[in-house]
Amino acid sequence: MRFALSAERLAFAASLHDLLAAADTPAVARGFAAGDYEPGRTLWKRLAELGVAALTVPERWGGLDAGPVDVVVAFEELGHHAVPGPVVESAAAAIVLAESGVTTWLTDLARGEVMASVALPPHVPYALDASVAAPVLAVEHDALSRVDATGGARSAAMSSVDPARRLFTVTGGEVLARGEEVRRAAAHAFELGALATAAQMLGAGRALLEMATGHAKARVQFGRPVGSFQAVKHRLADVYVALELARPLLFGAAIAVADRSEAAARDVSAAKVACAEAAYRAARAALQVHGAVGYTRECDLGLWLTKVRALMSAWGTGTVHRARVRAALAGREVRR
Amino acid sequence: MNIVVCVKQVPDTWAERKLRSEDKTLDRESVDGVINELDEYAIEESLRIKEAHDGEVTVLTMGPEKAAESIRKALSMGADKAVHLVDDALHGSDVLQTSYAMAQVLRKIGFDVVILGSESTDARMGALAAMLAERLGVAQLSLANKVEIDGGTIRTQRVADYGFDRVEASLPAVVSVVEKINEPRYPSFKGIMAAKKKPVDKLGVADADIDAAKVGLTGAATEVVDFVAAPPREKGTIVKDEGDGGQKVAEFLASKKFI
Predict the structure, then answer these.
(1) Does B222 lie at the interface with A, CB-CB under 8 angstroms?
(2) What is the pLDDT of residues A273-317, one digit of tens each?
(3) Pairing of β B2-6 and β B113-117
């Protein structure tokens, strides 16, 4: 199998990187944490102009109907720049809506006019950032519901380890669709959400490694840059290896989801676990290499550290995904 | 309206740039090539003119095969088609010869407006727009930070030390734009995918009626006689303040003739 990305996908990633690098995303993430959502919404609209919000929306609703590989390419860059908000949830919600035959919000989602959030219990029990999202959706069994503030179904937010994330319990609400297609849509959306979360972690891990190597080259101790010490070099090299070994699993899983392969669930779970471990290793190493300054709020590093920790258990914890890999290897049916 | 935007591929501004020892020309192989940053403003302006007045944007590039990457990026931003002038005979051409070669192509493909960036970040001549206008016998509106087209008339604001001049001419014309005239767009998913299918017309010197004897290193009016690598940065001097710090600073500034 050939994992190398096409020139077009590399160009798309480069374009997103250029936009985000110039957009001061750390300030946007800090704003989100403080409850100032406007810069986040504006950034999402700009990303939507490049097509990010339309990737999972069918063409007839103004979407791009792009495949999981394109989603992975985009979300790796979003993670690379720690873009806050219900971005994975918006992409997954578009799948749930379109495949359940509910077309109401699809055009607005594709344009980035609205962001959506979605709870897919049991593994996605809460709706992320429901306070910026409309619609907020939930799938219980075979019923897709819209839950929102006006319906009184939204409880208070729970805080996350990542201050830029807020989790909302959702119950009840207006049923939009019911049936076997809803169940299938939710299963598909879960795979894509887990995949996009894994991609974000790979991107975040890459950013952490970049920050750590940048610091190791600049910070001088004992008369030389700390990066010249072998113990630091090895630690960072291990991070690089972990990220590079997670990458083919991620793209392999994207191809499996695109092909609707029977092994898709297993591959997505393996990718999620590998990307989480690689990103966590990157976070630990980056924090250690930075020394005390890495713990400070003023240092941007913390935005990525907490994001990685939160994403590790979002869209299925490590335990859930390991269990899915184990079930697949044992020849049992893999469920959401 | 037929809009042509001239785009040059240059070595990445952040990379270490070198000259080749054998013929003292720029080493374009060992570094990544990117679109000359200042040309991105020209591309954006050409797209805005197209959006306001209809028409077609053609990217014109002269450069080696590798420059095709930069053409692709310009097309993914929204240009409609491209002409790539590529020929070994052009290697080592200076700005005078480049203006001759590109003028020949422009005569062949036709234009209402030709837009360029203010200069290239590698050679930094900043003279191509003026030379093209002269060779083509059309008006030159240089260093514009605002461009307006109204029927057959083009008006620009030309930045100057004292503010700006208002310049007006009849089309066809050659315009060079400065940075800050606009904010260049980022290529979108759709734009990138569409660029794959856009036509790129590759021309050699013969196709564009360019006399090969008038271009290339041997016939260049300018010659690189010699070059040396930039000296490494010298270590700074650390002065310990023992009550006379201010005086030391003043002495240093005086030694550099700042005060």
Answers:
(1) no
(2) 999 999 999 999 999 999 999 999 999 999 999 999 999 999 999
(3) parallel
Decide the pairing of beta strands A127-128 and A166-170. Answer: antiparallel
Confidence of residue A1 (pLDDT cuts 50, 70, 90): low
Residues B66, B189: contact at Cβ < 8 Å? no
Taking CB atoms and an 8 Å limit, are A8 and B196 in contact across chains? yes
Q: Which tens digits make up the pLDDT trace of A61-97?
A: 999 999 999 999 999 999 999 999 999 999 999 999 9
CATH for A194-329 (3.40.462.20, 3.40.50.970, 3.10.450.350, 1.20.140.10): 1.20.140.10
Q: Where in the sequence of chain A do the CATH 1.10.540.10 domains occur? A: 7-182
Burial-class residue B232 by CB neighbours within 10 Å (0-12, 13-18, 19+).
exposed
Mean per-residue pLDDT of chain A: 94
Q: Which of A7, A16, A51 is closest, CB to CB, to B190?
A: A51
Q: What is the pLDDT of residue A57?
A: 97
Please tell me if residue B192 touches chain A, with a CB cutoff of 8 Å.
yes
pLDDT the model gives residue A148:
65
Question: 3-state DSSP call for residue A168?
Answer: strand
CATH top-level class for A7-182?
mainly alpha
- Chain B residue numbers with beta carbons less than 8 Å from the beta carbon of A11 are 72-73, 76, 187, 192
**Which residues share a beta bridge with A117?**
A136
- Closest chain B residue to A46, measured at CA: B186
pLDDT at residue A154, rounded to an integer: 47
Beta strand A143-146 with A174-178 is antiparallel
The Cβ of residue A227 has, within 10 Å, a number of other Cβ atoms equal to 18
How many whole angstroms separate alpha carbon B39 and alpha carbon B183?
Answer: 12
Q: Which of B23, B33, B146, B186 is nearest to B93 (CA)?
A: B23
CB contact under 8 A, A51 and B188: yes
Give me the phi and psi of B102, to 5 degrees please. -70, -35
